[in-house]
Specification:
Oligomer: heterodimer
Pathway (chain B): Lipid metabolism
CATH topology of chain B: Glycerol-3-phosphate (1)-acyltransferase
Strand content of chain A: under 5%
Strand order of the largest sheet of chain B: 1-7-6-2-5-3-4
Protein name (chain B): Acyltransferase-like protein
Number of helices of chain A: 11
InterPro entries (chain B): Plipid/glycerol_acylTrfase (IPR002123)
Largest sheet of chain B: 7 strands, mixed
Distance between the termini of chain B: 43 Å
CATH class of chain B: Alpha Beta
Pfam families (chain B): Acyltransferase
Number of strands of chain A: 2
Strand order of the largest sheet of chain A: 1-2
Structural class of chain A: mainly alpha
Distance between the termini of chain A: 25 Å
Shape of chain A: globular
Radius of gyration of chain B: 16 Å
GO biological process, one term (chain B): phosphatidic acid biosynthetic process
Largest sheet of chain A: 2 strands, antiparallel
């Protein structure tokens, strides 16, 4: 595995260790409170997530594709478990789980950009609507079809564009593309984490109080700014110049922020607070990947249009 | 009659079958989650009673229990369905350690094997509706639960609500949809009094109260 990958991975682990120590220190100084407990739960969950992600990324493209397909499956399952569906939707749901995920990821693995970029938004859209008519159930037809399309777009299409980075042809970039994928994931999650931290420390004015009480302007600008700066500082791991890395990181931060906000609005409309319970402190897997789902296609396309022949 | 007695007092299945059962429960957890919510009784004899919507009900309830509880819990099922084909009977007897009851038979109390199993110290899984329903909330309960509660006052009657299974594998469907299923455990009921109708209504309300959104 390329040396750069282990440098970046080592840096991530060092920061996580530091965060763990700080979390323990805060718990020791400030005693037990829901916020402190949540903080330490989140850090613990990060150890598990990174403990799985780093080895899988290091072990090559096939395993990485498999991991992301599994993540798409888990997030799609969380999303569709919470949205009401009717018995007539069963064939559509089967297509969503067992056809869209394998096909999309197979196309990504083949690097067949022309098809995987349109499979779900075009062909999936038509096919899922057509199959939905077979049950001859008109009740809430538009809402049901729209919900399932939405779920597949966010959980399958969005997330699949992250491992798609591995198959890009980037002539000016001799490193293993796993480094670029790690860079992207790092910037997105750092943006989430730093927005959370800045929000807790300095947050005052809310961005969208109706949709998400935790997002504040101070959190967004502070955390987002820091994450963009981190992305710029890590330009050596990417095919970009420092300025390009900063702008791309800012784009990723912005897209990720809106991903989180949009999915908070969806959650609110469904009457739930979290997508699931699989990650203690964070909620479900989709709570962690909502920003990735929006940011991945943006980052993938900008990289492709700017740097691939 | 002899066959029924044998079924009721049979010992735990052999080890390879128990390993297979654990694998099956892991597969169920991978597919539908079967996340336990709330606390089932940690020890002692328990009679779990739940809403019934699909063939996966028993497996998801078993998967949500701890290994210790699962090893001494026996689901109750109908002989006319589960004994009908040889492979179903094999699965019921060996894999799931089911107590089969003869609903249609004329000879004696159909619940006799269940009483035997309770007397032997096993915990039970019971579906008081008697049949599968496609609705979110359970239908009216039959009286078997009441008779068992009166005969075995020390068993803890725990209401359970199985969420989403009517969407995962409804009646008539062949393949399960991989949606998330939660198993909601409630607090054990007070022992049954003299009034059968009131007790069954109380048990029904206990299960409905566990369903999210109620």
């Amino acid at each position: 595995m390329h040396q750069n990958f282990w440098q970046l991975a080592g840096g991530i682990l060092a920061c996580l260790l530091l965060a763990t120590l700080i979390g323990r220190l805060i718990a020791w100084r400030h005693g037990d409170s829901p916020t402190v407990r949540n903080l330490n739960e989140r850090i613990h969950a990060w150890w598990a997530l990174i403990g799985v992600a780093l080895p899988v990324l290091a072990l090559g493209k096939a395993l990485t594709i498999a991991l992301f397909a599994l993540l798409s499956f888990m997030t799609l399952r969380e999303f569709l478990s919470l949205t009401p569906t009717r018995p007539g939707d069963r064939p559509v749901l089967f297509l969503a789980f067992f056809v869209s995920i394998p096909f999309q990821y197979a196309l990504v693995a083949m690097g067949w950009y022309g098809l995987f970029a349109v499979l779900i938004p075009v062909y999936g859209f038509f096919l899922l609507s057509a199959v939905a008519t077979l049950a001859q159930d008109a009740e809430h037809f538009l809402e049901r079809s729209a919900r399932i399309q939405w779920a597949v777009m966010v959980c399958v299409y969005g997330i699949s564009h992250a491992p798609a980075l591995l198959f890009l042809d980037l002539p000016g970039y001799p490193q293993d593309h796993a480094v670029l994928l790690l860079f992207f994931l790092l910037v997105v999650q750092l943006s989430d984490i730093l927005q959370y931290v800045c929000g807790k420390l300095f947050g005052r004015r809310k961005v969208a109080p109706v949709l998400s009480p935790n997002k504040t302007w101070e959190g967004l600008l502070g955390g987002g700014g820091l994450a963009s700066a981190a992305g710029a500082a890590l330009y050596g791991f990417t095919p970009f110049t420092p300025w390009q890395a900063a702008l791309l990181s800012a784009a990723v931060v912005g897209a990720g922020f809106f991903g989180g906000l949009v999915l908070s609005a969806v959650k609110r409309s469904l009457g739930v607070k979290d997508w699931g319970q699989s990650l203690p402190g964070h909620g479900g897997m989709l709570d962690r990947l909502d920003s990735v789902a929006f940011a991945a296609p943006i980052f993938f396309h900008l990289t492709r249009y700017g740097f691939a022949p | 009659m002899d066959a029924q007695l044998n079924l009721a007092s049979r010992r735990l299945p052999a080890r390879p079958y128990r390993v297979l059962r654990e694998l099956l429960c892991s597969l169920v957890r991978l597919l539908v989650g079967a996340y336990p919510c709330g606390q089932p009784p940690a020890s002692g004899q328990v009679v779990y009673f739940a809403n019934h919507t699909s063939h996966l009900d028993t497996l998801t309830l078993l998967s949500a229990l701890s290994l210790r509880a699962r090893s001494r819990t026996r689901p109750v099922a109908a002989l006319d369905y589960w004994g009908a084909k040889p492979w179903r009977r094999w699965v019921a007897e060996n894999l799931l350690n089911v107590v089969l009851i003869d609903r249609c038979g004329g000879s004696g109390d159909p619940l006799a094997p269940v009483h035997e199993a309770l007397a032997a110290g096993f915990s039970l899984i019971l579906f008081p509706e008697g049949t599968r329903r496609d609705t979110e909330l359970p239908g009216p309960f039959k009286s078997g639960l009441y008779h068992l509660a009166r005969a075995h006052p020390r068993a803890q009657l725990t209401p359970v609500y199985l969420e989403n299974l009517h969407r995962i594998l409804p009646k008539g469907a062949r393949l399960p949809l991989p949606l998330i299923n939660k198993v909601w455990f409630g607090a054990p009921l007070a022992p049954a009094g003299d009034d059968k109708t009131a007790f069954l209504a109380h048990a029904h309300a206990a299960v409905c109260a566990l369903s999210p959104g109620h």
